[in-house]
């Protein structure tokens, strides 16, 4: 079976489908020959005996009503049936109408009659030499006992049976071959409807790889159509990202060029004894400010590149104390805009899954983003499996909300900020979700994790256990 599977894998899809179609038809024909053919034989034998029974009913009725009479011809007998009356007292057989019974037949039938107590019509299928017309053929017999003690024998050679069977089989085979051909035709058409769009998709992908202009004209409502739609969407998204990436590179190049040029010009001026900003200290402050801008952009680029290779290699469970991470970030950033009020609602017992450095970058970027747009207040809340950062700045446009965390996406002020892209990569790596939403008087960034019912049940159980132990300790303390 494994070899067949490996062999099929070496074939193209069209060859696989044609092979499966051919094998289906072969199995169908084997079923026809192996299963239906014996059933046809059984059916024809049963039908032949039924014809013999019908022929005997008319003759039996006549002979019982007219004992001793021998009709000149068979009554109710179909073509090919030979009838005779056997008298066991005289051991003689009289043929009714046309036909013959030779000595071998009479001897075998006499043996069957004497060996069995025949009351109802009894059927036999014997291979007897018979007459010259039926020599070495199987012959079907039906024997009935008459009221006067004689026996009515009807026989039908299998040559008639075979002609009936062959006619039936030929009709069935013709019908099944026609069905198989129609089925094969439909399968061929169906295979063509699959192969053609797949070839179109392959050609389309090859052109995209070569950066050539490509058009995919595949519009279907099945899985192939879904793949085609996804490829078209992917091409549009790649084109959009490439455009924005080029714009971002140009923007970053300009942003890097400006502080470098400023540092160079101020440095050369100071070297020549000229202080562009009035005094040496103020001119050096400008150099330091632009150096900080340059450092920040470079660190953002390095962080973004580093996050591409970030893996979740932490042990299972929540092991990072998030309250301390938030405190460290606030200590470093709140001096940037001292006029901004920070409102904290932090649960000190909350732990997140992941390492400290990536999560610290996440919190830094969220708070730095909030500081950029906040008017007077930033609210930070930390609960179990949830971290929210809100600022009271302008709401984010709806078109930006949907793609805010995509790489190279412009911000509300046309800046190519990399911070939110870094946030998205860290959060998703550790199994969390991030979203931005406009509130009534604020913009909120929310990081959260969906937990399963089983995990929630275990946590509730652990909480109840902790509360119970706390109450026990309080009772002991009061008692002492």
Low-confidence residue ranges: 130-135
Residues in helices, as a percent range: 55-70%
Average predicted local confidence, pLDDT: 78
Largest sheet: 5 strands, antiparallel
Which value, in Å, is the CA radius of gyration? 48 Å
Q: Write the H/E string, N to C.
A: HHEEHEEEHHHEHEEHEEHHEEH
Please indicate the count of domains: 4
- Beta-strand content estimate: 5-15%
CATH class category label of the largest domain: Alpha Beta
Strand order in the largest sheet: 2-1-5-4-3
- Number of helical segments with 4 or more residues: 11
- Content-based structural category: alpha+beta
The CATH topology label of the largest domain is: Heat Shock Protein 90
Termini Cα gap? 77 Å
* Overall outline: elongated
The count of DSSP E runs of length 2 or more, i.e. the number of strands, is 12
* Subunit arrangement of the protein: single chain
- CATH architectural grouping of the largest domain: 2-Layer Sandwich
Annotated CATH homologous superfamily of the largest domain: Histidine kinase-like ATPase, C-terminal domain
